[in-house]
Request: fold
Amino acid sequence: MATARAPGKLMILGEHAVVYGRKCIVTAVDAGVQASVTDSESCFIDAPDMGFSGQVDLSQESFPKQVAFAAQAAKNFMQAFSVARPFRITTRSPDTPEKKVGLGSSASVTAATIAALASHFKVPLDEAKLYTLAFKTVLEVQKVGSGFDAAAASYGGTIMYKIGSPEPISPLAEQLVVAYTGQPASTPEIVRHVAEHVKNDQKFYNSLFDEIEKLVLMARTAIGRQDWRQLGVLMNHNQELLRKMKSPSTEFGVSSERIERLVSAALDAGAYGAKLSGAGVGDCIIALCPEALEANVKKSLQAAGGQIINARPNAAGACAV
Reply:
């Protein structure tokens, strides 16, 4: 049996703009997914966390929703490396919450599955090849996306990312507090909705995305200098720009009333900066704060209705264990 783990992700700055060719900063987090591969008489996927266990025909064009990413990853791996022998894949999420909360579990299970298959079949697979295959897989299943989550799962650490070009940068501070809003969000749906508005007002959105990328570049410098106050200021500015985007059902852009309540709670408790992380509308917010105030920030977020998620940044990329 071969087993591999892949991390989740948190977007620090640059969501949505990255879909349109701008740079973002993403960090891998230690809340991830584990995949194991064993020999089998037929291709079988066991995903207890997703409520699925059964045989899967990898020659099909689509797969059961619960295991679509693992199955597509397996199919792509078989095609890329001419593997014909059947196998059994078992996926588990030992570190992640029961519900999806926006930590990139789709890309994580994809990268973990590919890494476990590579280990089982003794196929050499560096970070670049893993990322390329993982990004291809996620895009085929979701139909939209920029691949930053696949890059985080594959490379690990903290990354400046532009589509097709992951670049590891200095690690992020440990004092990153993560809180779940209690509202799940569909990344593909929100990305598609924003795309409709981009089509109708390209000048406005291009200007907005350019401004976001400027914040990303400044944030890279701040991280390199370990200037966390400055990084917090840039995160707050990024949140302001995200409020200007149109979204499916909120007056707060791709933010929301719940997100804004948690952001305000974190800032009131002394966080340097706080913003949504990911597509928005729901899922998680992140708050950057000094270690001395971490407990206060968590308490304030909980009082505002947030669920604290234990997810530390700068986690290692997908690898066999």
